[in-house]
Amino acid sequence: MSILITGGAGYIGSHTVRYFTEKNEDIVVVDNLQNGHKDSVQIDHFYNIDIRDKDALQEVFINHNIEGVIHFAANSLVGESMSKPYDYYENNVYGMMCLLDVMKENNVKKIVFSSTAAVYGEPKQIPIMEINETNPTNPYGETKLAMEKMMKWFEQGYGTQYVSLRYFNAAGAHESGMIGEDHEPETHLMPLILQVALGVREQIAIFGSDYPTIDGTCVRDYIHVMDLAAAHYLALEYLRKENKSDVFNLGNGNGYSVKQVIDTARKVTNHPIPSVLKDRRSGDPAVLIASSEKAKTLLGWNPQHHSLEKMIADAWNWHQGNPEGYTK
Ligand code: UFG
After folding, report:
1. What is this structure's pTM?
2. Pocket test for ligand 1, best of 220, 278, 288 (most atoms within 8 A of CB)
C-alpha cells in the first residue's frame, strides 16, 4: 500500500518524502507547485494537482492503493494570512474538506496533519503544552485550528483517525545539501540571515529589541526539519499501532533569541552578517517554546539534531550549494 503526501514538494514536505523513502515506504506525492518545487522530490509517483480539484484527487486514490495521508498542502505565512484571509480559508480549510471527503469516499482512515504553534496565539505559559488554550491571533493559525477541529468531527462521524503535529520553528536542511528551504518571497529568519552571508542581501533586520527577553529580541524554539520528518513517520506508526487520534507539539524545548541566532550564524558562516534594529513585526509573540514531552513519551520521538549550530550548518550547506534556491 502507498502513503499519499500532499504538499510533498514544499520545504517540510520534501524532507518528509525523503525520510519516508529512506524507510522504504511507497510514496505518492500531490502538489500544485504554487509554493513547492518539483526538483525537491525525486520519486516516480508525482502528481501536479490541487487537492481542491476533487476529481483529480479521486483519480490518484483510484490509481494507488492509499493506506494513509500525510497532509502538508496549505498556505503557511502568518503575515500573508493577515492581508489575504480568504485565500487561507479557501486553500487550507476548503482544501481539507476536499481531502477528507475523498479519503472518506475511498475508506482511507489515517491522516497525519501538519499543524503549527500558531494555533496557541500569545501563550499564557512557557513551555507550551498541548492542553493549553488555543487562541490564534492570525488567519493562518485560525485555519489550522479549524482543520484540526474538522478532523475531530470527521473521526466522530466517519472514523477517520488523525495525528496533528504542531511544529514550532522549522530549520535546517537534509545533510546531503540536495534539498532545503526556498520560499518566494522569503520571510523566515534563518534563510534571510544566510542570504546575507551569501551576499544576496546586505543586512538582516531585527524586528523588535524591546521584548521582555534575555536581550530584547524574540525567542523561538528551532527544530531541525529532519527531526520533524521523523515525527511524521512515528505519527503514522502510532496510527497503525494504536488506532487512536491525538495532538502533539514538536520543538526542542530550548529558546534562542533573534540575536543569538544571528551570532551563531556568524560563527558557522564566518561572515560578519550586518544587522539593523527595526520596529516590532505585528503579531509576533515574545517567546514561543514547546513542551514536547508528550511526543517523546507517546510517539517515541527523539530529536537527533538539537544544536542550533547543526541546524544552521545544514541550512548553510544547502544555501551555499544552491544560492538561488531550486532552478526556477
Ligand atoms: N525575524 C526578524 N527578522 C526577519 C525575519 C524574522 O527579526 O527578517 C524574527 C521574527 O520577528 C520572529 C523570529 O525572527 O521573532 C522568527 O521569525 P520567522 O518568520 O522565521 O518565524 P515565526 O516565528 O514568525 O513563524 C513560525 C513559523 C510559522 C508559525 C509560527 C508560529 O514559520 O509557520 O512560527 O508562531 F505559524
Report:
1. 0.97
2. 220
